[in-house]
Amino acid sequence: MSNPTEKHNKESITLPTSIDPFAWAIAGRSVKQTIAVKELGRLCSMLATDYGEVSVDIEFQVDKSGISSITGSTSASLELTCQRCLEPMRSSVASTVKMALLKDEKDEGGIPEQFESIIVEDEKLSIADFIEDELILALPVAESHPADQCEATQYMSDPSMSNPNSVEDKVKERENPFKVLEGLKTGAEN
Questions:
Q1: What pairing do the DSSP bridges indicate for beta strands 52-62 and 30-36?
Q2: Half-sphere exposure (CA, 13 Å, Cβ side) for 133?
Q3: Which of 4, 123, 131, 152 keeps 20 to 30 A from 34, CA to CA?
C-alpha cells in the first residue's frame, strides 16, 4: 500500500490527524494531493457550499542553517458568496507557504524575514488544520461577481434606485397624516 502523503492522488485522502513536523522535515517528506473541501469544516462554514477541492503541494525540510520549515503552496476552487447579490460564485484561492517550525517563541529571533513562523506545541501538527488555516487567511474579504455578471448590478444602474432624491420626492408626495390635526387646531382657534 502506498503512502498517501508522498504520492499525488486524484481521490480525496484523509490526512494524518497529527504528525511530528520536525521528524518530517528531517526526513524531507512532502504532501502532494487533492483534498475535498467538505473535509475542512472551519473553511466550509465560511463558504456558500462545501463543493470543491483543495490542491496541496508542500514540503517539509531542514535548510542549511538548521531551520525546519514547510514550503510550497495550497490552492482551491471554492464557492463563495458574492457580497453584492448574495448568490454563490466560484472563486480561486491560493496561498504560498513559507513557514518556519518553532518549538518555542524564544526561537523566533533567528528566523529569516522571508519566513513566517509557527510554534508547534508538543511537536504535533495537524496537516489538515495547517492547510485549512492557510486557505482561511487567503480568502478575500469581500468577493463579488464581475459587475457585468452580477444580478445586483441592475439595482446599481437603475436611476430611481441610485438617486436618493427620487426616494425623498416619493416620501414628500405622501399625504401628511397630521394635516387633519392642523385643520382642527385652526378651527379651535376661531
A1: antiparallel
A2: 9
A3: 123
Closest alpha carbon to 33 in 51, 61, 59, 69:
59
Report CA 52 to chain centroid distance, whole Å.
13
- Cα 118 to Cα 99: distance, rounded to the nearest angstrom: 7
**Residue 84, Cβ neighbours under 10 Å: how many?**
18
What residues contact 144, with CB distance under 8 A and at least 6 apart? 82, 83, 84, 85, 89, 150
For 76-108, how does the pLDDT look when each residue is reduced to its tens digit (9 = 90+)? 999 988 888 888 889 899 999 999 999 888 778
Q: What is the average pLDDT across 139-161?
A: 72
Distance CA 175, CA 73 (A): 64
What mean pLDDT value characterizes the chain? 81
For residue 18, give the nearest of 120, 131, 124, 130 by alpha carbon: 124
Task: Please tell me whether the overall predicted TM-score, pTM, comes out greater than 0.90 for this model.
Answer: no
